[in-house]
Amino acid sequence: MQGALTFDEIQKLVKENNRSKEFSDEFVICLIWKETNFNPSRTNSQTITGLMQISKGAVDMVNKLTPAGTHFEHADMLDPATNIQCGTLYLDIAKNKLGGIDASFGTGKGYSKSIHTCEACLKGDTAHPMVALHKIHL
Q1: Where is the Transglycosylase SLT domain positioned along the sequence (predicted)?
Q2: Cβ contacts of residue 62 below 8 Å, gap of 6+?
Q3: Which end of the chain is more exposed for a tag (fewer CB within 10 A), N or C?
Q4: Neighbouring C-beta atoms of residue 1, cutoff 10 Å
Q5: In a 3-state reduction of DSSP, which class is residue 9?
Q6: DSSP classification of residue 43
Q7: DSSP 8-state assignment for residue 74
Q8: Biggest alpha carbon–alpha carbon distance for the chain
Q9: pLDDT of 100-120, one tens digit each?
Q10: Are the beta carbons of 49 and 81 closer than 8 angstroms?
Q11: How many CA atoms lie less than 13 Å away from 61 in the CB half-sphere?
């Protein structure tokens, strides 16, 4: 089991693997922090796995709704780069086809509000990223 990654490690992974056309790197970083505190080994059940807590259903949906040649296996969601690639594609699907991330990714209405607040904070104060991230869990 791998422990939590640092902010710098997550930032690099997100920059290299964010496939979203809708969500900024800062948003993805904040979502990962909210979901797992940067721990890529985190599982919430047998079906929700990795940094972005990707479910088997989300992996299946990404495979079904992305261009040919894009394919993921749920068993690979513990790999941080793969998890971010699949998870960011799923974010776009959630926003555009499933009624938003509050309805399809989080725990209900208002889920994304703290993530958007964190995103704005990260964009405005890159010198102190952990200050923005810790606001999510207050």
Answers
A1: 14-100
A2: 70, 72, 86, 89, 90, 93
A3: C
A4: 7
A5: helix
A6: B
A7: G
A8: 42
A9: 665 555 566 667 888 888 899
A10: no
A11: 18
Residue 106, pLDDT score = 57
- Of 97, 95, 96, 73, which is closest to residue 85 (Cα–Cα)? 73
Answer yes or no: is pLDDT of 125 > 60.
Answer: yes
Tokens of 17: 């693997």
Cα angle 128-91-71, degrees, rounded to a multiple of 5: 120
> CB within 8 A of 77, min separation 6: which ones?
49, 50, 54, 59, 83, 86
User: For residues 63 and 93, what is the distance between their CA atoms, to the nearest angstrom?
Assistant: 11
pLDDT of residue 23: 94
Q: Where along the chain do its domains lie?
A: 7-136
